[in-house]
Amino acid sequence: MNQNMIVGSDKKFIQYSSYLFYLIPVFLIKFIFFADLFLIFVDIIFLYFVFKYKKYNYFSNFYFKFFLFFYLLLVIRSLFSDDINLSFGNSIFYLRFLLFSLATIFFLDHNKIFLCVLRRFFIIILLILLFDTIFQYFFTHNIFGMEYRYFNDDNFRLTSIFGRRGVLGSYIARFFPFIIALFFIGRKNLLTTKDLLIIILICLISTILVILSGERTSIVLLIFGFTLIFFTSNGKLKKIFKYLLIPIVLISILIISLDARIKNRILSHSFSQLGLNSSKEKIYIFGEVYEGHFKVAYKMFRSNPIFGQGVKMFRVFCSKKENYVSETACTTHPHHTYVQLLAETGLLGFFFIFSIFVLISFILLKSSFFNFFQKKKISLFISNYNNAKICLLTSIFLTLSPFNPSGNFFNNWLSIIYFFPIGFLFYLENLKSTKEHKKF
What we know:
Blueprint: H1 8-22, H2 24-30, H3 32-52, H4 62-78, H5 84-91, H6 95-110, H7 114-139, H8 168-181, H9 193-213, H10 216-232, H11 235-258, H12 260-274, H13 288-303, H14 314-318, H15 337-373, H16 380-400, H17 412-438
């Protein structure tokens, strides 16, 4: 991308408008409306400069075209759903997330301090959440006077500033690999000692927050994140994760063992949901309630296996008498990414997303194999590029993982988090191709 075309006041405007981008993860904590609104503003600013300076090459991005097919599939299917207003109204605006990925590349291209400032924002967020969560742990309310959503020994959880939404652990676990990636993207030199210490601090804070949140799915995601980065990264990042393994395990065991409420939530409550410590003979994959959701989703899939029922149609389908399964089976979504995709987008939507997951899994597996069997030293650029790419791919892997329950795939809050690392991955691919082109 040619940066010389944008100069003067437009260049300053891009720097100032970058704060809309920085504030998106801040508002995801409490004010989702503003996070989504700022994302739209970022898209509009991106489109304005694209058309003003005729930078149409951003749309030639292969990955964008690939995702665009999925978007068109959602829109077309929604037009033939049982509730067009509900389904089409959600799918037609899904394009904003695809544009957000391209806008990310644009801001990275035209704001030299973009990565530095974004890193600082995330570090500040982590420190505030850590202080607030610990405060809430000891005083039953956080620094803003918000109480726990669940304050009993059977279902103890800490939610910090997130309040009643109870997604503290999910926010941390999903953003954790992405924050690590920010320290490697675009780096031409080795990380400083300060950078390495900050990465260690991020790992420790993330572990403490996720364990204290009591969100079992988030704990699984964090374990996946640590494991994938450890086996697939190289250089100093691999050493950091190697030396942090024992301290992180000890911290986790210490927190769980010292508080019976957290232990009960993470271990006993989980075993109970799975049917492992009850008189029930049947063992459930994710829990008895989830199985009811899956049965409804299977009915949806069976009625239209190719195209599904349309975005957000789970709640409509399960509310019909003929589709009744149980009192707890009907909800807004089936709490599993691929079950939802099969039910609402059919095999077409399912294979589109699942193929991405398979591809990412293959890349991570290949990287792990390379690290263990490749003896040659690799260049500094490739090392930094590889670690950045690994962390971003890990972040997306956690998003698409079929091994745990999940939120609504088309939910605004989750979609923003899902698409956050994608634009940075696009940028890395452009950066690599530029580097390779200069060799010839």
